[in-house]
Amino acid sequence: MTAPVIQYVKTDTDFEEIAAILDCDGVICFKGILPKDSLGTLREELDPYFAKTKFCEGPFVGTQTKRLNGLVVKSAIARDMIINPLILKTMDHILGPFCSTILLNITQGIQIWPGQRAQVIHADDVMYPMKRYEHELMADVIWAYSDFTKENGATVVVPGSHRWNDRNRIPQKEESVQAEMNAGDALIYRGSLLHNGGANKSNQPRTGLLISYCLGWLRQFENQFLVAPPYIAKAFKKELRDVLGYTIHRPNLGQVDGNDPSLLLSADHSEEMPTRDWLQPLGYALIEKAQKLEDAGQKLPATLEDLMRIH
Questions:
Q1: Which of 90, 153, 253, 294 is most buried per CB count within 10 Å?
Q2: 125-159: per-residue pLDDT in tens?
Q3: Full DSSP string of 135-196
């Protein structure tokens, strides 16, 4: 059996190569995606929060682990990381074919302290109670806030496990590999990929930032509308507001008073407005064809496929 590996690539790597690695392995690492000066500022912003954060309670989250939530309102650098163009392009490759918009699922700092045992192996998408998983529902990015080493609990991944037919299969140790990273690197993996936080056997905490994305028609892990309500979100860049959920997912999901929720962020949204359609282009095309047939007194065909064939 060939030992599993993680592919480490530069941020200027041809995207077709990046996509091929993600399709095959389900995981990839971008080297040095966060500049050193941004990393320094990020630590200035978040270190005080980590210092005040209590240890978690529960065997899954880890009793020697701190989890800092709601990063979107705690760090300007984290906001830029969320909408990093390469990250969003990667998410569009994984999730884009299955939704009209992609949502921010969770932003969480994870600080594993000495003595924390390894987390149980799992896939993150099990949070969604689907009987069948025909495509990816979510995907994650772990940004290395500090160096990740085998000793301090670097994330463990099972490359290729997203392609396993049996989702109940428990991987053997030799099928997994730890994602050693330098601070400023980022590990991207599919939501169906098996992984876990490693055991910290060092004398220093290991810190990473988990930024996760999901299909626009799913409920987010973190309630972004309470994390960043309109009075806060209106100051954010449009790309960030969109992934938070201040946009429509076609067809017609996420409306406010029959309109796009971005209106809540405008200077004046008190004016009464009519409810409108937010359909996919195919929906508009089907309605137009059906109405033309009805206006001409013709009978509708038996299937939508037949309707689409009519010119």
A1: 153
A2: 999 988 777 899 999 999 999 999 999 999 999 99
A3: S--EEEEEEESS-B-TTTTPPEE-TTGGG-S-TTPPPPGGG-EE--B-TT-EEEEETTS-EE
